[in-house]
Write a structure and sequence with these properties.
The complex is a heterodimer. Chain A is an alpha+beta fold. Chain A has helices at about 20-25, 30-35, 130-154; strands spanning about 5-15, 40-45, 55-60, 65-75, 80-90, 95-110, 110-125. Chain A has 2 domains: about 5-125, Alpha-D-Glucose-1,6-Bisphosphate, Chain A, domain 4, CATH 3.30.530.20; about 125-154. In chain A, about 25% of the residues lie in helices and about 45% in strands. Chain A has a 7-stranded antiparallel beta sheet with strand order 1-7-6-5-4-3-2. In chain A, a hairpin with a 5-residue loop joins strand 3 (about 55-60) and strand 4. The two termini of chain A are about 35 Å apart. Chain B has helices spanning about 5-20, 20-30, 35-40, 50-60, 85, 90-125, and strands spanning about 35, 65-70, 70-75. The longest helix of chain B has about 40 residues, at about 90-125. The chains are: A alpha+beta, B mainly alpha.
């Protein structure tokens, strides 16, 4: 298993015009109204909507919990497509441990607009790949055990 | 991709545990058979205290269990926990499904408000 590059695709048909859905994504004021899970606020939401432009989303929750997310737009096609990177979950030194490339597609479909989100994990925390090796090692010792039991039975 | 409490908590346990090379080495050592705490500590150049600290973190993250056998304390790996790392994709799928559901609710709400606003306006216009 390759944990250094993974992809997640989620898609949904929304009953609204493409322009409206696109605005809900790109207007910081609208975006902050739906983005955070219940009980969370978005005190800072800034989009510089052009290739290379920066984005910043701060999310705050109970007990002073705050999480800042930074990224950059890679591609912006009005009402059609948004591609941006994001980095989050800083480690003790403040360096982000996760990096993603996000592609959001807006397509007109009967009944509304289909939004398709593709998230590519560019970088996951250090050690995640090592874990795979570890799990494999663990599995192979189980395989060995199985083989041994098999030969005993024969 | 983004923050949820769930991912936040997840990072605090397993990901934090495996981020350190010494801790990964400890896990690798005891993955095949349980070892007593002292023999684990002897394998490293760093101080015993430092190794104990790493073991403590691994215990707190649920990746290691320590069992008392007679006078010795044995470390045993609980690698099932590591599947949380492999379930990464599933976590993100859930996260994004929630986000899009939330967007749907937002759009419904806004459009309802607009519709009722329009009908009030047209009712007012009729009265004039």
């Amino acid at each position: 298993m390759d944990t250094t590059r993974k992809e997640v695709i989620v898609s949904k048909l929304l009953k609204a015009s493409r322009e409206r859905v696109y605005r809900a994504w790109t207007d910081p004021e609208q975006f902050s109204k739906w983005w955070g899970p219940e009980g969370y606020d978005i005190p800072v939401c800034e989009f510089d909507l052009r290739p290379g432009g920066a984005l910043r989303i701060d999310m705050s929750g109970a007990g002073g919990w705050l999480m800042r997310m930074d990224g950059n737009f890679v591609e912006v096609v009005d009402n059609e497509k948004l591609v941006f990177t994001t980095a989050a979950f800083p480690d003790e030194e403040g360096n982000p441990t996760h990096e993603h490339l996000n592609t959001i597609l807006f397509a007109e479909e009967e009944g509304g607009t289909r939004v398709t989100v593709t998230v590519t994990l560019l970088r996951v925390p250090e050690g995640a790949a090592a874990v795979d090796g570890l799990s494999d090692g663990w599995k192979s010792s189980l395989d060995q055990l199985e083989q041994r039991l098999f030969s005993i039975n024969q | 991709m983004f923050a949820t409490e769930r991912l936040h908590i997840m990072r605090r346990d397993v990901f934090q545990a495996i981020a350190d090379p010494t801790r990964r080495e400890i896990l690798g050592m005891i993955a095949k058979q349980p070892l007593n705490v002292n023999s684990v500590a002897e394998q490293f150049d760093v101080s015993r205290t430092a190794v104990y600290k790493h073991i403590k973190i691994l215990i707190e993250c649920g990746l290691v269990e320590v069992e008392q056998k007679g006078r010795e304390r044995y470390c045993e790996a609980r690698l099932e926990k590591l599947s949380e790392v492999s379930e990464w994709v599933e976590q993100y799928r859930k996260l994004w499904t929630n986000k899009l559901d939330s967007l749907e609710r937002y759009l419904e709400q806004v459009q309802q408000q607009e519709a009722s606003g329009k009908s009030t306006r047209s009712a007012r216009a009729k009265r004039k």
